[in-house]
Amino acid sequence: MKGNNQSMTIEFDMIGLSGHPELQLLFFLIFFFIYIAALVGNIAISTIITSDSRLHTPMYFFLINLSILDICCTTAAIPKVLQIIQSKEKTMSFPECITQLCVFSSALSAELILLTVMAYDRYVAICIPLHYSTIMSRNTCIILAVAVWFLGFLNAIVHTSLILRLKFCQHNIIDHFFCELPSVLKAACSDTYINNLAVIIADVFLGMACFVLTVISYTYIISTILKIRSAEKKKKAFSTCASHLTVVTLFYGGVIYTYVRPGFGNVLEADKVMSSFYTIASPVLNPIIYSLRNKEVINALKKLLDRNLYPQK
């Protein structure tokens, strides 16, 4: 088959969910309700934090950024998945696929860096609390947030640009439910050595570096907490970082499996399941984890509901 050129219309056959035609309605309902839950949950978290001045702290500022990135992740993938499930052809055009890949990769990369920044924020708050307000000043938080978004976008642009240099057949098969970097590279009809090399470099300098920095932060955090004599203070200190640690564990598990391993071997069927952790599960669970385990968020929610339901009270 001929490679990519301007006279061809390149399409991707998305067969990730087409193996069970009798379950298409069920798949549609699952993805639809998950998407709505992710949107409602993350918008609610952002609204609660914005409305309560007591939550205008670095930790909650970064949490708003996390919610926005979660919305970007799900919006980049799920609406198109719903359209493909309803369609008989189950295809995606080349521009649609590349756009989806770029937006999703940008949000995913930024979230990876943001979780590292949030771990550093917890390290400063617990290990050197007397200097917290100085180190994590408003300007510092803004600079860190801008850096997170910029580096995430830059990483996505690099991978997207390299993919645009590849040749694709007129009809390509992607055994996934959306266009993600490993699955798109597997569908290419030309050599992807440079692309795989770029993935490995990104894994090392972005993924593994963020992972190591996060581990170092929590090593110091746990060490400091264990030295606290008061059981009540120890419990309070741990509760401030338990939610973030839970999110990090869920997120890194899927990302490392999907992006680190393909650079050294073939993509397995299990990739679709692992991708769902940070594409679907994580954006839905994050608001639940941060709200149910955080008394400040719960109290702020009660205050917001009272203000809106009983305005004259």
Automatic annotation (TrEMBL):
It is a multi-pass membrane protein. Residues 41-290 form the G-protein coupled receptors family 1 profile domain. GO terms for molecular function: G protein-coupled receptor activity; olfactory receptor activity. This is Olfactory receptor. It comes from Microcaecilia unicolor. It holds the Pfam family 7tm_4. Belongs to the G-protein coupled receptor 1 family. It comes from the Eukaryota. The chain crosses the membrane at residues 25-48, 60-78, 98-120, 141-158, 197-221, 242-260, 272-292. It is found in: Cell membrane. Gene3D superfamilies: Rhodopsin 7-helix transmembrane proteins. GO terms for cellular component: plasma membrane.
